[in-house]
DNA sequence: CAGTATTTTTAGGCAAGGCTAAACTTTAAT
DNA sequence: ATTAAAGTTTAGCCTTGCCTAAAAATACTG
């Protein structure tokens, strides 16, 4: 199989890549907290293993093989997150770090049985879809809060940032998956929003609006 | 914290050491499937970190610190084994390899919550005691089958070898924890035994008798 | 107790994965 | 079209953990 380091690079490229576009060395380095030179080394290795396509000075993208691999890692990560929240009473801001470790455990039976034990969940605690054992997952219909206009209304179905800082902020305002949110006013000057949430009005910055996914009510 | 490799050495020394006696470099190398020279390197490192006492050419033993550390690793290993058997329907011969990986996950909360989720088990699926979070565990009153005499009788409370090969052998003869075993006859020539198990008579070699722990009926 | 056998350590190397500094491409801007 | 800035790669070095071969220490044996 692949080393932990390889798996982490695969995951990073997967999350950064947007369809056909190449992901740059620097983008990967930023996301992984390493140096560009280390990324170059690894990209060569991933290319050798046919996990990524690498064009020097241009960037890299995962091969079909690499995508398959990424999906399995993400499946494991998200299943463990569900386990931690549902069975071990972790809160949604505590799971990421531990799941980062658990996702690298190698055992097909383990992950199959875990999936079954959790009753084949479709989403993780942050609303992200869990790939099945073939790598397929439900595409979730969602829109970034920052793209909404006055009067738009929806329910929270996902978050992008899964850091404790951000999730604690949401908890503080009793915002969780499913919470209904309405845009009362959008301030074009700084892209901040005035929202109606839990029967209260709440002022949020662009950064926050850029990290919340809603399912819009028509 | 300590690296995976360090943890594995600590565990190996712990299992090999018999109270005060020093464990030799070669013993450790054999158990870890590495070379003696690698062991020497690591013993120096463990000594530097005050996890082991190392006397060149003589051997090593864990310090109090090292023992504490070993107990925590063993606690994690055995709790995960219980989890795999009780919650994910693994059989007792399948758990070891996966638990070897899971025992290195670093998260105090994870292990505390897992313990709670499993309702604070006292023994793992092979009958071995699970240390509590302070490193204390119940001493189990047990005797090696190979030390019994004709007519002795008891119940299986533990196994030493946890390999699939051995555990499958036991499964084949429907021997599990709690199974009653009586020594019908001991053959002094080759230390083999004729046992009464599950209302049948069973011939076992010394190797097998050396891997079964019984609690003797008085 | 001398000599051999065994065990252990040392010395030197290798692979993975990271780093810095220098060299080289590409991009952007005059 | 040059040139400066930004991005990327190369070269060389480091650490961890492992290895082999040789040297050193200890243990055994007659």
Task: Give me the secondary-structure topology.
The structure is a homodimer of 218-residue chains.
Chain A: H1 4-16, H2 25-32, H3 36-48, E1 52-55, E2 59-62, H4 64-86, H5 95-102, H6 108-117, E3 143-144, E4 153-159, H7 164-172, E5 180-187, E6 192-197, E7 200-204, H8 206-209, E8 212-216
Chain A binds a DNA duplex (30 and 30 nucleotides) through residues 3, 5, 24-26, 34-42, 45, 56-58.
Question: Any overview of this molecule?
Answer:
Two copies of one chain form a homodimer. Helix content of chain A is 40%, strand content 19%. Chain A has 218 residues and is of the alpha+beta class. In chain A, the strands form two sheets. Chain A has a six-stranded antiparallel sheet with strand order 3-8-4-5-6-7. A two-stranded antiparallel sheet of chain A has the order 1-2. In chain A, helix 1 packs across helix 2, helix 1 (4-16) crosses helix 4 and helix 4 (64-86) packs across helix 5 (95-102). Chain A is globular, with a radius of gyration of 19 Å. The model of chain A has no long low-confidence stretch (mean pLDDT 96). At the A-B interface, helix 5 and helix 6 of A face helix 5 and helix 6 of B. Chain A binds a DNA duplex (30 and 30 nucleotides) through residues 3, 5, 24-26, 34-42, 45, 56-58.
Properties at a glance:
218 residues, DNA-binding, six-stranded antiparallel β-sheet, homodimer, two-stranded antiparallel ribbon, alpha+beta
Summarize this structure briefly.
The structure is a homodimer of 218-residue chains. Chain A is of the alpha+beta class.
Distance between the termini of chain A: 47 Å
Segments of chain A where pLDDT lies below 50 for 5+ residues?
none
Helix segment tally of chain A: 8
The general outline of chain A is globular
Helix/strand-derived class of chain A? alpha+beta
Summarize the largest interface: chains and residue counts: A-B, 19 and 19 residues
Number of strands of chain A: 8
Give the amount of beta strand of chain A, in percent.
15-25%
**Largest sheet data of chain A:** 6 strands, antiparallel
- What pattern of helices and strands is seen along the backbone of chain A? HHHEEHHHEEHEEEHE
Helix fraction bin of chain A? 40-55%
Q: Could you give the order of strands across the largest sheet of chain A?
A: 3-8-4-5-6-7
Gyration radius of chain A, to the nearest Å?
19 Å
What would you call the quaternary organization? homodimer
Overall residue-averaged pLDDT value of chain A: 96
């Amino acid at each position: 199989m692949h080393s932990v380091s390889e798996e982490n690079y695969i995951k990073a490229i997967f999350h950064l890549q947007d369809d056909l576009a190449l992901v740059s060395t620097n983008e990967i380095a930023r996301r992984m907290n390493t140096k560009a030179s280390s990324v170059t080394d690894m990209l060569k290795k991933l290319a050798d293993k046919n996990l990524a396509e690498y064009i020097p000075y241009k960037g890299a993208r995962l091969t079909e093989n690499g995508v398959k691999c990424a999906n399995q890692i993400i499946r494991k990560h998200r299943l463990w997150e569900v386990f931690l929240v549902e069975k071990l009473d972790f809160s949604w801001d505590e799971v990421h770090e531990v799941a980062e470790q658990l996702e690298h455990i190698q055992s097909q039976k383990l992950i199959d049985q875990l999936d079954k034990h959790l009753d084949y969940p479709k989403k993780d605690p942050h609303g992200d879809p869990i790939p099945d054992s073939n790598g397929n997952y439900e595409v979730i219909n969602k829109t970034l809060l920052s793209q909404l206009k006055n009067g738009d209304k929806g329910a929270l179905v996902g978050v992008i940032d899964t850091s404790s800082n951000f999730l604690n902020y949401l908890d503080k305002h009793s915002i969780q998956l499913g919470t209904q949110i309405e845009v009362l006013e959008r301030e074009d000057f700084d892209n901040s929003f005035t929202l109606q949430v839990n029967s209260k009005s709440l002022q949020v910055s662009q950064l926050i609006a850029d990290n919340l996914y809603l399912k819009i009510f028509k």
